[in-house]
Amino acid sequence: MDKSCGGARKIRQNVIVMRHGDRLDNFEPLWTSTAKRPWDPPLVEAGKTRAFCTGRKIRAKSDSPITRVFVSPFLRCVQTAAEVVAALCSKDNNPAAISSDGVAVDPSKVKVAIEPGLCEVLNTRTIRVKSVPTNGEWGFKTPELEALFPAGTVDGSVKPVYKELPKWEEDQDCAKKRYAEVIQALADKYPTDNLLLVTHGEAVGVAVSDFLKDALAEVYEVDYCAHAHLTRSITYNGDQPCTAENLECLGRPGQNGVYYDVATPNT
């Protein structure tokens, strides 16, 4: 939303940080024993449906539409984002649609890019499979992943915040710091855009714990396709931003599938 105040112009930027949909290995545990890439499961069909319907809800709730989407390179996140983008860009916004199948999109509405900094926490605590590419050769092929997004929505000019993935056995606290830095960096890089970041559960937790104003939050559960909503006000003089407030997490525990306990810090 754009508001004028004297000679200045105010806008409100929104950033939604969202977990991927239902992953296959949590429904078929034996899948990892035969998969060529056991660290990178796809979505089940119910996960695609959940993602599309979540995208439709985000579109319906917001008076400030999402204009840019950034995605972890893991397949489950790319597939989730493909469904969400289709819902955000659908021309008719048919309330009966439950997936991107047959949905006509307007690619001018949203632009998408893969952001390595939004990737999964790369350690054995998070990726619990016997075989992982500890040498860093994860096999993510950007052109193949980009081909999964609705035609015309990929922005090939975007330069990622993280040019490469973190090293294997990433420290958990370092990963949380990474998520916070990437969320802030993307918001600062695109201050006139409303952003959707499709990532992993730990990142959604960070979006709450690091950006909840005047409170301490301990996140203990993040559902599939759960999302945290961050916002801030930015004031412009001419074309240059003169002040930008801190990103602040909105909502309450349990809202949008993110569950956490809140404590007021000692003053």
UniProtKB/TrEMBL annotation:
<dbReference type="Pfam" id="PF00300">
    <property type="entry name" value="His_Phos_1"/>
</dbReference>
<dbReference type="InterPro" id="IPR013078">
    <property type="entry name" value="His_Pase_superF_clade-1"/>
</dbReference>
<dbReference type="InterPro" id="IPR051710">
    <property type="entry name" value="Phosphatase_SH3-domain"/>
</dbReference>
<dbReference type="InterPro" id="IPR012398">
    <property type="entry name" value="PRIB5"/>
</dbReference>
<dbReference type="InterPro" id="IPR029033">
    <property type="entry name" value="His_PPase_superfam"/>
</dbReference>
<protein>
    <recommendedName>
        <fullName>Phosphoglycerate mutase family protein</fullName>
    </recommendedName>
</protein>
